[in-house]
């Protein structure tokens, strides 16, 4: 039964990435790179850790030590995705703007930084909801 603790959260994260690809395609920005992208709607990080936490809570007990560890882990990952990495994305935006103000003879020295690496609260909410829905569906079906 332990494979389920890996499989269900991974399915939740992959589904989140596929949804990102579909959302990008509807905006005429389809790219296969979205399957391994950071940021965007919904958060695959949140989907994965919420699914894992819910799986462990349900099967191991809501009062178990392993659930407590998973819960703390989920809080750290979600907080990081919406806080630290989102701040890094804002810094990247500002640095990219500064690079564009340089003379062409100087700007070529600097690589364009990826700006979408964190999540908004809404992206984290829907990622968390997706992880929970996938887990509940798994529990109800199997």
Structure characterization notes:
This protein has 142 residues and is mainly alpha-helical. The chain has helices at residues 3-26, 44-60, 65-82, 84-101, 104-107, 121-141. Helix 2 (44-60) packs antiparallel against helix 3 (65-82) and helix 2 runs parallel beside helix 6. The longest helix is centred in the N-terminal third of the chain and has 24 residues, at 3-26. It is elongated, with a radius of gyration of 18 Å. The mean pLDDT is 90.
Largest sheet data: none
Rg computed from alpha carbons, rounded to a whole number of angstroms = 18 Å
Please tally the β strands and state the result: 0
Helix fraction by DSSP (H/I, runs of at least 4): over 70%
How many helical stretches? 6
Relative strand content = under 5%
Summarize this structure briefly.
The protein is an all-alpha fold and 142 residues long. 72% of the residues lie in helices and 0% in strands.
């Amino acid at each position: 039964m332990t494979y389920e603790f890996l499989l269900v959260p991974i399915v939740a994260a992959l589904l989140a990435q596929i949804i990102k690809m579909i959302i990008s395609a509807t905006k005429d920005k389809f790219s296969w790179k979205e399957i391994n992208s950071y940021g965007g709607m919904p958060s695959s990080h949140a989907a994965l850790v919420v699914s894992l936490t819910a799986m462990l809570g349900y099967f191991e007990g809501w009062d178990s030590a392993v659930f407590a560890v998973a819960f703390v882990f989920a809080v750290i990952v979600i907080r990081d995705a919406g806080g630290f990495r989102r701040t890094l994305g804002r810094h990247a935006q500002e640095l990219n703007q500064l690079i564009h103000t340089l003379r062409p003879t100087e700007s070529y020295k600097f690589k364009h930084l990826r700006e979408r690496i964190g999540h908004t609260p809404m992206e984290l909410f829907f990622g968390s909801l997706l992880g929970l829905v996938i887990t509940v569906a798994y529990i109800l079906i199997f």
